[in-house]
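INPUT
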Amino acid sequence: MIATIFWELRRRRTALIWWTIGSILMTVTILALFPSIQDKAAQMNQVINQLPEGIREMKAGGVGSVDVGDPAQFLNSQLFYITLPMIWIILAITRGAAILGREEQDGTLEMLLARPISRSQLLLAKLAELIIEMLIVSLASAALVVALAPHFELSGLSASYLLLTTVLTALFSLSFGMIAFVLQAASSLTKRTATAAAVAIGFGGYILASLAPMTDWLQTPSKLVPYHYFEPLAILHGHVSTGLIIYLLDVFGLGIVLAVQGFRRRDLS
Amino acid sequence: MNGGIVTHNLSKAYPGAAEAALSKLNLQVKPGEVYGFLGANGAGKTTTVRLLLNFIQPSSGSAVVNGLDIVKDSVAVKRHVGYLAGDIALWPKVTGQQLFDYLMQLQGKDCTPYLKELVRKFEAEPQKKIGELSKGNRQKIGIIQALMHQPDVLIMDEPTSGLDPLKQEVFYKEVRAAAHRGAAVLVSSHNLAEAQRMCDRVGIIKHGRLIREQTIKDDEQLGAPVLRVVFRSAVPTLGKSVKVISKQGATAVVQAAGPLNTALAELAKHDIVSLTSEQVNLEEEFMEYYGDGA
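OUTPUT
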């Protein structure tokens, strides 16, 4: 299992470096905007708070009214609710669908499974590598957020809550990669179909959760999408919703069981 | 029999398919034996190989490899198996050596001395990235990874595809050496001439059914060269000493039905423009050779 994790990491190292650099650059750029935004916070708040509720939810990171001059609200709306999840969801879904799916499609999976390694072991090793990959990318950004926040006047935020928010944002993003991974591993879905399904759940869910406050009939279905339970602003203040914890435990716990059971029994394509 | 490969009514049917991909295959490859598994595309060779490696599940029947059930003991089976896929897929951005190192770790066995020997014999280039290698050189990497841990059972699909004749000879020798060591070798191939060169026994599969097995060395038919003969005019009626595989216009593909000199004497009675020996293609040959009633 360790051999497979290192094998994957070695093959992925260049891509991993670029994903980490991209994530860091995005993070630093957004943090660096805060001092200039803070000067114009009053005007910006006025503009944003006049937007229709659904649009404001999308812009403001799932909260009703916005104060972009507040460090926590700024980080919530500009970094944790949409920017980092968007980058990390793309990474997680593409990797989740491909980590076994591409090998199966290319035929290289057979070479691995011709060795004395069980399908479950291989699957868990690949999943572990995916989690490590996400951790590397997200912890690099987390370290920067914690280290640079005071330098960009983002004061009054707890370093541990910043770290927690970054890690939970990474896990939340990874959950969509997990969905793609499970769909591909447990069934005969192609890499592309698994990717499409996870994207629909991830980004479709984001749009649904954001538009729900505007439309009565969307409020009940919006409770079924993961984004409904993702509240970075609350996490920045040390409150993690039970819904998010249950969602993450379900996706990772149930996902592993389904992926292992499905992958063990099915024919390779 | 504890070693080797034994299948019992091994079958595979895919949902919605008109006919089974493999139907009640009863096959035995003994330790020390090189068995050629011959047939046209889609005949069921690759399905058999994939079943034995547990890449796909049997619909019915069973098989044991080295005394171990292919489904229940799948992981244990693979401690004893060396596998080469047809049209081998490798990771283009890693070197051959990195691949060997990884596969040795998965195998749980340090095979370095024999690996070095194989690299030398095949003149492989393990320090180059696989994506930079020619098809033949990639095939060498594939062959080496299958042989390097000196398995008790070798399962190889079209193993010499892309290899030059010199390296084909090296491969035949290595397979023969593995068999002498006691390995059971199952080689799936289109190529009758190669099977004849390498195998002790062949089985011919057609439409998912094993239609014939024979000891190759005793069979003169299988050993006879295939000749492409161009006559001055239309292909004449030939005597019984010459078996006509196919004919078109003035060209006939023939094989000696008995002693070669008798067949050549029969051909010499006619006005011949050219006569060349060619490698047998099963798809062409066996459909003609065994006919639909086989």
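end of record. The longest helix of chain B spans residues 165-181.
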